[in-house]
Specification:
The chain is α/β, with parallel strands linked by helices. The protein has a single domain (about 1-165), classed as Aminopeptidase (3-Layer(aba) Sandwich). The chain has helices at about 25-40, 55-70, 95-110, 125-130, 145-150, 150-165; strands at about 1-5, 15-20, 20, 45, 75-80, 85-90, 115-120, 135-140. A 6-stranded mixed sheet has the order 4-1-5-8-6-7, with helices on both faces. Strand 6, helix 3 (about 95-110) and strand 7 (about 115-120) form a beta-alpha-beta unit. Helix 1 (about 25-40) crosses helix 6 and helix 3 (about 95-110) crosses helix 6.
Length: about 170
């Protein structure tokens, strides 16, 4: 099983700012922790974060190329955005992807996260263009510091890793 992990646009200065922590930094922290955890379990993992990008479109395109050129079996994208409530939603297209999304949401809920539901991801560029099973995890927060205080990166990385470990799929 080969995983592709995507955590961030890698654009200088991109990401909403609250206090001293940027979304991009947390997304990368979670992504790198997922990569480490999967590798420690003996899986092949591809870091799909581009080394640099000139725009969001360029970043998305590069992530698709990295995943497809490396023939990943499962692609996971983690994202944060400001919103009106704290929750995690997952976007998926196929029934098999929805099953993976449900396992992630169940694991996150067991870890104490507030979960939304599974949404139609058929219009999301990454999900439309990556050949592997692919899901997009959208974490919404009201106050970023509050979100970090509640959850932190380790807890989320652990929940996602447990859910996507192929022994659990």
């Amino acid at each position: 099983m080969k995983y592709g992990i995507d955590a961030g646009y890698n654009l200088c200065g991109y990401g909403e700012r609250e206090g001293k922590i940027e979304e991009e930094e947390l997304v990368k922290e979670i992504g790198y922790k997922i990569i480490e955890k999967l590798k420690s379990r003996g899986y092949s993992v591809v870091n799909c974060i581009p080394s640099k990008a000139s725009s969001i479109g360029d970043s998305l395109h590069k992530r698709v190329l990295i995943a497809n050129m490396n023939n990943v079996d499962i692609f996971i994208s983690v994202n944060f955005t400001a919103g009106e409530e704290i929750k995690t939603e997952i976007f998926a297209v196929t029934e098999e992807e929805r099953c993976i999304a449900k396992k992630i949401l169940n694991e996150m809920k067991a870890q104490g996260f507030i979960v939304g539901g599974i949404k139609d991801g058929s219009k999301i560029y990454l999900l439309k263009n990556i050949r592997a099973k692919a899901i997009f995890i959208k974490n919404t927060y009201v106050e970023f510091k509050e979100y970090i205080d509640l959850y932190g990166g380790e807890k989320m990385a652990q929940a996602i890793t447990e859910a996507i470990d192929c022994k659990n799929l």
